[in-house]
Q: What sequence folds into this?
């Protein structure tokens, strides 16, 4: 069995310590905030990022380009190893296509190496959930082909449900209309969203009040989990600098499903630039998205 390396993106919103522990590498979608570029070498602290967003900063993000992808892929294949790359949703970024182009170029130079590029149609710790299972399977000795097959079979079973505290960030990203954002904020309306089968963010409902929106995340999980109840080895929760709210959702998940293995982590700058402070997202395996 050939050696292989799992690579993903910083959009998985996993702790940096997790990457090191599990020997997973990542490409970085950069973030421009107040004229400063943040990337893999120049990282902004989560607390500072959200403080500046709350103060009015409006960050923008950039996809990975083919040259950057080719560099990191080549660093692996030139050592005689194969690449399994799990990409940020093509429904939200051009990064997957950049990496597909990079892989095609490298296959000509390294015909004996395998470079598998998978569009996860996932974001934040939804993408991270697929990477978590892939890394676990690799550690158990599974081949790249076995892990690839499992990931492809479970992409549309990777459920993302989330809510945001401030609709204006979604308006700025073109997700809701200005009228909806203004009226929703005034009426304390909290939208419920998910990532659909095309990897796009889709509003699926709205509730009144923050606590109700957090509880609704768990109700949405109950609707979707089906025969995957008992099969989730871990549940992931990402948040936009609102750890207490994420912990409240984790408590509800434990009470409802008996799942105690929950990883919580702040949403990084790339996803946070669009979701904003106060976002809470819940990720798990279920029958449908």
A:
């Amino acid at each position: 069995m050939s050696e292989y390396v799992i690579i993903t993106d910083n959009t998985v919103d996993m702790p940096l310590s997790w990457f090191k522990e599990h020997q997973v590498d990542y490409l970085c979608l950069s973030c421009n905030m107040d004229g400063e570029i943040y990337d893999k070498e120049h990282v902004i602290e989560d607390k500072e990022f959200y403080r500046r967003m709350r103060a009015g900063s409006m960050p923008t993000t950039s996809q990975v380009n083919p040259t950057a992808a080719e560099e990191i892929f080549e660093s692996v294949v030139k050592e005689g190893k194969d690449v399994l790359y799990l990409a940020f949703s093509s429904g939200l970024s051009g990064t997957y296509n950049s990496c597909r182009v990079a892989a095609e170029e490298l296959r000509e130079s390294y015909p004996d190496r395998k470079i598998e590029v998978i569009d996860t149609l996932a974001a934040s710790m939804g993408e991270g959930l697929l990477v978590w299972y892939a890394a676990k399977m690799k550690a158990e000795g599974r081949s790249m082909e076995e892990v690839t097959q499992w990931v492809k079979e479970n992409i549309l079973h990777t459920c993302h449900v989330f809510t945001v505290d401030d609709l204006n960030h979604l308006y700025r990203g073109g997700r809701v209309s200005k009228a909806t954002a203004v009226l929703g904020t005034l009426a304390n309306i909290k939208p419920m969203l998910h990532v659909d089968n095309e990897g796009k963010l889709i509003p699926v409902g709205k509730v009144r009040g923050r606590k109700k929106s957090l509880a609704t995340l768990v109700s949405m999980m109950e609707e979707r989990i089906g025969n995957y109840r008992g099969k989730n080895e871990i549940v992931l929760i990402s948040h936009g600098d609102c750890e207490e709210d994420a912990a409240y959702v984790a408590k509800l998940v434990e009470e409802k499903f008996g799942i105690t293995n929950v990883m919580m982590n702040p949403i990084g700058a790339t996803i946070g630039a669009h979701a904003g402070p106060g976002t809470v997202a819940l990720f798990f395996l279920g029958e449908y998205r």
Notes: The mean pLDDT is 95. The chain has two domains: 4-154, 157-285.
